[in-house]
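Exercise 7. Given the encoded structure of a 280-residue chain, write a plausible sequence.
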């Protein structure tokens, strides 16, 4: 994130941060502990620095992408969450977002068609798995490409992560990208199972998610359900809305995502100027 944000804002990174990042990037043995978000943001950041003229970082781009391709890309078209281990196949929507965006960024700047194909394939699969009211599933089996659990349906995926990814997909001509973006965003505006807007304009906050009743304070049922579905080869669909409730939380990074996705966009006024935002 430091690499990307410094490049975007034109800031000089503090020397201790540079040194730490260089140490991480130069020692490929440390990459074995990376999760999807780690390698996704590092590759995105390295590309951003190169775009900004800081060519010293570019030497890490190709090795990072090679590691991503070899250890995080599944034959299903989705991405794994880790390079090794049992946990690897259990991947979230965020996993797909971080790695697809990184592939789009790298593929465009490096002229690497294979990276663009990987990103496009992932997006195409995600759109095919999107729920009837635009819900982006939370948990996947990256090995098979199935949805293991739709819940929780997170607002930040609907208004932040998916739009950021789909903007790239639309740029490269991915069919259905804009429709999927709009459909997903409208979920936040109230077109969802509960018929409830997930915005609190008077507080400038959003509501975190829609979750299965009884699972607000424990992850155990979700973990067991995901493992069971992966083991049995089952897919998952949405449950009845009467068994769903709202998680009344808002986290700062969620608001950051909506700025990342829409801070420079003026082509979707039906979303960005919607009255649900309270005229803000």
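Solution.
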């Amino acid at each position: 994130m430091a690499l990307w944000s410094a490049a975007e804002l034109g800031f000089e990174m503090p020397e201790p941060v540079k040194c730490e990042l260089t140490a991480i990037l130069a020692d490929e043995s440390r990459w074995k502990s990376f999760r999807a978000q780690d390698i996704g943001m590092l590759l995105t950041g390295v590309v951003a620095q190169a775009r900004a003229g800081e060519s010293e970082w570019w030497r890490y781009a190709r090795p990072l992408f090679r590691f991503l391709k070899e250890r995080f890309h599944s034959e299903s078209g989705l991405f794994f969450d880790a390079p090794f281990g049992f946990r690897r196949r259990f991947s979230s929507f965020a996993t797909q977002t971080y790695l697809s965006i990184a592939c789009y960024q790298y593929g465009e700047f490096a002229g690497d068609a294979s990276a663009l194909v990987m990103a496009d394939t992932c997006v195409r699969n995600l759109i095919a798995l999107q729920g009837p009211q635009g819900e982006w599933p939370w948990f996947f089996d990256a090995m098979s490409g199935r949805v293991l659990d739709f819940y929780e349906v997170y607002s930040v995926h609907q208004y932040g992560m998916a739009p950021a990814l789909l903007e790239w997909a639309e740029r490269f001509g991915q069919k259905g990208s804009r429709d999927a973006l709009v459909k997903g965003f409208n979920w936040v505006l109230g077109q969802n199972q509960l018929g409830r807007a997930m915005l609190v304009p008077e507080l400038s906050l959003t509501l975190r998610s829609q979750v299965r009743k009884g699972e607000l304070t424990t992850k155990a049922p979700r973990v067991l359900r995901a493992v069971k579905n992966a083991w049995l080869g089952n897919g998952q669909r949405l449950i009845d809305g009467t068994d769903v409730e709202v998680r009344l939380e808002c986290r700062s990074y969620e608001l950051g995502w909506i700025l990342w996705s829409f801070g420079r966009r003026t082509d979707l006024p039906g979303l960005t100027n919607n009255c649900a935002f309270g005229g803000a």
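Remark. DSSP finds eleven helices and eight strands in the chain. Students should compare their own answers with the one above.
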